[in-house]
TrEMBL record:
It holds the Pfam family Phosphatase-like_N. It comes from Lentzea guizhouensis. Keywords: Arsenical resistance. Residues 84-209 form the Phosphotyrosine protein phosphatase I domain. It comes from the Bacteria. Transmembrane segments: none annotated. This is Phosphatase. GO terms for biological process: response to arsenic-containing substance. SMART domains: LMWPc.
Length: 212
């Protein structure tokens, strides 16, 4: 398949093969190399669908493929995970769900595993969102919008939706919450600060009720 990444085709192919090799080694006791290669290829194509800047797609593919394999192994009880996992979902994974995930990770100190995703992800996180979180000492430098995939829902113990309707699949045995939170898209920084603080209160309450 011909792909666009801002890189020559042979270099892109080499990078994806290197990612596959690294992840196959990391998950060698859980997944076959063929399974890892399939996830890497699928992950690249998922991210490429909505990417506005393609130069860093291989790097993001490596990060997201690793997360997906981790979640798949957890969902299928193929690994031992000792902390609960929370998934935040909004439409674009560029605002509310990114804020919530960053704040929960900040407050949880590793006691909770955190994920975020979008039912229709965009190419970049909102600048006002990164600015509002920077103000409270939280960096989103490594965060990026990610599509909602089946394994991330199956791996979650708590699923929090924020304005994404009925696009999230429902699995038994999970706790589902729907937060009525304003959308920061197009809002000035002062308003985004209010949204951040609203989400922060909700995240703290959620964390207090999660059993380790």
């Amino acid at each position: 398949m011909s792909r666009t990444s801002g890189l020559p085709q042979h270099e892109l192919t080499a990078q994806l093969l290197r990612i596959t090799d690294e992840l196959a080694d990391r998950f060698h006791s859980v997944f076959s190399r063929e399974t890892v290669a399939k996830v890497v290829d699928e992950t690249y194509d998922l991210l490429a669908q909505n990417a506005t800047v393609t130069t860093y797609l291989p790097v993001l593919t490596g990060r997201f493929a690793r997360q997906r394999l981790t979640d798949q192994s957890r969902a299928e009880d193929m690994t031992t995970i000792t902390v609960p996992q929370v998934l935040f979902i909004c439409v674009h994974n560029a605002g509310r769900s990114q804020i919530a995930a960053a704040l929960l990770e900040h407050h949880a100190f590793g006691k909770v595993s955190v994920r975020s995703a979008g039912s229709n992800p965009t190419g970049a996180i909102l600048r006002t969102v990164t600015d509002a979180l920077d103000e409270v000492g939280i960096s989103l430098i490594e965060a990026f919008p990610k599509p909602l995939t089946d394994e991330v829902v199956r791996a979650a113990d708590v699923v929090v939706t924020m304005g994404c309707g009925d696009t999230c699949p429902v699995y038994p045995g999970k706790r589902y919450l729907d937060w009525d939170v304003a959308d920061p898209a197009g809002a000035p920084l002062n308003t985004v600060r209010e949204i951040r603080d609203d989400i922060d209160r909700r995240v703290r309450d959620l964390l207090a009720g999660i059993k380790p």
